[in-house]
Amino acid sequence: MTKKLGFILAGAIIIVVAGTLAILRDGPAPPPVHSANVDEADPMIQAAVSETLGQIEQDLGNAGLRIRLAQLYHANGLEDAAEEAYLQAIAMDDEQPRWWHFLALHRSEAGDLEGAIEAGRMTIKLNDSYGSAHRRLGQWSLELGQLAEASSHYDDAERAQPGHPLNAIGSARVRMEQGDDAAAVMMLERVTRNPQFRDIGYAHTLLSRAYRGLGRDDDAARAAARGAGSKQVTDDPWLDDLLAMRTGYAGTINEADRLLATGRTEDAIARLNALRPEHPQDVTLLN
What we know:
Radius of gyration: 21 Å
Strand content: under 5%
Largest sheet: none
Order of helices and strands: HHHHHHHHHHHHHHHH
Shape: globular
Distance between the termini: 51 Å
Number of helices: 16
């Protein structure tokens, strides 16, 4: 799919949402979306969902409450209701780039990469300066084998956020898929030799693959050792808004682990302390 066609599709989405918004304005707002799986969720999740549903029932036209419900569903694994809840919120206010971004993330997690790209294009239409949105589009396009589109999105990410290492890493992935390992090596070496970024293990892992493609086996082995155990990394500050909606025991532990991994120790401790009243003897919390 060409970039021009993508924007045409995004425009079509605007028309559909605008029509839905007109209906909401001219008639009663629809009831909030209910998850069929909420009764099986952690009691803390059930309580948060119930409270938000009650607030919506008292203020059916409040788009902010609708997006909160969508985020609760999304962040806490109630995927059966997340998409419709996001669409309800966006139908009421379609000019919030973060909301489109969250919808795009939800769709990507559900395996709907084409739908994620459509929502992602709306994100950058409303906020072209958010580098992570461009990188996400690059990643999803790459996964679909749309190499030209992926390359263009990573170029856009570089214009939005110059010098960010993940722009170069994404572009290098595209070059490797295109069979140009030499170009990938040049991009990745600029990252791995920069004192600010040399600890990004995933860059070393990719560099090892590119070296191996060029027959530089000794260099590949050294790079592989530096990148051992690394995973693909992201830098998406807006994601914090979504992940902050995690609740329940497992969700809170996972969020605390993520905060610790990013150096936000005080935030992690605060999240764990919220669990203590319900789990006073829990070994994980005591430690």
